[in-house]
Amino acid sequence: MLSYNKYNQYATQKVNLVRVLDGDTVVVSNFLHQEIHVRLVGLDCCETTVINRAYKQAYEKKISIDEVIERGKESTDILNRFLAENKGQLVLKAQGLDKYNRTLGIIYAGKTNINDYMVEKGKCSIFLYNE
Fold it and tell me: Is residue 92 one of the residues assigned to a domain?
């Protein structure tokens, strides 16, 4: 994983998709072919595996853990389909790092803000990241 310093953690750069981890987290590579784990800032999609966060989402949304996982997989599929259909140049606008050392960022596919797209079409909630 690429390690950032205080000067490039807010960079805007062209990137290529490596893989989608879930509806709000992707791995991209930069021009140096370094992989960057990106948490799409402003989103909260349901989890895709049974972890503590999934139980918290089930409790908050008053749904079953199975429903959380199903919704998480749907969001992941929506993001995968969108990115497959929009293979053009992706641009990452980094916003800093989270507590897991992932880049917090906004990704654009052409003029489309993927973060906004996932709130609108990807069944994700708006999330103000403060960690």
Answer: yes
Query: Per-residue pLDDT tens for 11-65?
Result: 899 999 999 999 999 999 988 889 999 999 999 999 999 999 999 999 999 999 9
The residue type found at 107 is I
User: Domain of 38: which CATH number?
Assistant: 2.40.50.90
Long-range contacts formed by 46-53: CB under 8 A, 24+ apart: 46/71, 46/72, 46/75, 46/123, 47/22, 47/72, 48/22, 48/23, 48/72, 48/73, 48/76
Question: How many domains is the chain partitioned into structurally?
Answer: 1
